[in-house]
Batch of 2 targets.
Target 1
Amino acid sequence: MPANAIATPVTPDLLPQFTQLLNDQRAALLAQIRQQRGGDISRADAAANARSVAQGDWAQNDAERDLAVTLEERELDELNQISTALQAIADGSYGSCVTCGADVGVARLKANPVALRCMACQTQLEQAHGQVHAPTL
Ligand SMILES: [Zn+2]
């Protein structure tokens, strides 16, 4: 095993399992979006509700639109990550770090199936970007 000895490479027999995880994750996300935006509840209303829950108050101003946009961007971002991971499974690159090519590692991918980078590269990236979008990847 190469220098990064902790990472167990993804073998082809594991791919159906990760495909399932990613499909489940996408289904859950879509259900959540539908729930937030279902019926005649607009995105702004959903954002308002989210903020009311969080802060017990809601101001009708530009922040409302900003939050609606933020929610949408984060959800779209997550859906994009899932699509990217499913595409990687399809083209055989799943489990390889997009930055250095090392194994991302089975344990890391089970915890976060959309991870695109090995721990070392991800840590470096987060430090470089001030951890703005910390949790995933
Ligand atoms: Zn890497």
Target 2
Amino acid sequence: MKEAERFRSVMSHFATGITVVTGADAEGQGVGLTANAFTSVSLRPPLILVCLANESRSREVFLATSRFAVGILRSGDEALAHRFAGDTRDARFDDLAFRTEVTGAPVLDRALAWLDCRLWDSVEAGDHTVLFGEVMACGVSGDADPLVFFQGSYRTVTP
Ligand SMILES: Cc1cc2nc3c(=O)[nH]c(=O)nc-3n(C[C@H](O)[C@H](O)[C@H](O)COP(=O)(O)O)c2cc1C
């Protein structure tokens, strides 16, 4: 097994949630992508991070506008995860309800939980960029189970 494959395989054993990270460009056009490289960083101030591939188109917009929102997906929303990772970028926002909170970044209405972030810092790290977000507002939208990603497939939490 090549080292990169081994690394990917090892990391796939770390179960994560799935998020959709969203923003809007200067013309108000929505951009966003599916991301599971997301975690909390600090309580005071409240900071999170998301790691985005350097070729991500959304990354450019988040850096240029200094804002983005994170929507934590609920169980059953595999299609949304698929959509925000797929080739049809221009259709990602179709027929979905968004709202704005503090920063103006579009917040996905149907997210299980959400965080509206101001870009706090960014660090290039290999072929990805770590975007740190200062949480300006956040909340929980419902009482559903989360969508889980483990060993390359979507799972649900079973108590
Ligand atoms: C389950 C899953 C998790 C992903 N996690 C990340 C991630 O953490 N960071 C990232 O840059 N891309 C991640 N991707 C890939 C992006 O969603 C995908 O490349 C997307 O098309 C990028 O869109 P953009 O170029 O419009 O920003 C993930 C894809 C899937 C299906």
